[in-house]
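Entry: Heavy metal translocating P-type ATPase
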Amino acid sequence: MKCSHCQLEFKESELFKEVIHHKELHFCCTGCARVYALLLDLNLESFYDKLNDSTLAPVTPQDSMSALKLEQALEENNKGELILNLLLEKTHCNACLWLNQKVLERLSGVKKVSVNFTTHHLQIVFDKSLNPKEIIQKIESLGYGAKIYNAKNYALKAQKEQRSYLLTLSVGFFATMNLMFIAIAKYASYGGASYGGTNYGAGMDKLMQRNLDLVSLFLSLLVLMV
């Protein structure tokens, strides 16, 4: 049987029943029940349709961000509004990002919420009357986490990943081409291929074939290691 919020499978004895909006539902923990009730109150139950076959982690308490760290991360635009850039954590799919955006848009004092569905970067523009701590608490109440988004650190991480991808691609191309040449040489030696009256590869001895096998093994392992 599935938990009505996180959609994870549990034994029926591990779930507890709770009636929310005249519906009898099953939950694995009070955190999941609380979030489910919150989404219904905000008319965001369509979140569960967007999940499809995805599952969520059960809602657990979070370690809130310090007020000092939040204050240092705030920016101000030319309208006198505050801007907070966050990196969402514990998200499983685009439905999770959509949910955070819609819930924060309903928070009193919030003017605009922008989400990058690729980087999980969340930007919130809000009035000074709203305590930024409330934004973090609202995200955590849904079972997600957030930390300060650092564009410079993200760019460095992206560059590092790009270099890693290029290295993997280069090694894979190098190994594939050499394996192909070795396969052609061995194939020619087995059949004693000839062209223009001249035999090619027929004289390859067992030692050479064994060495080529070792080189092929090394190239294959090299691709697996990078």
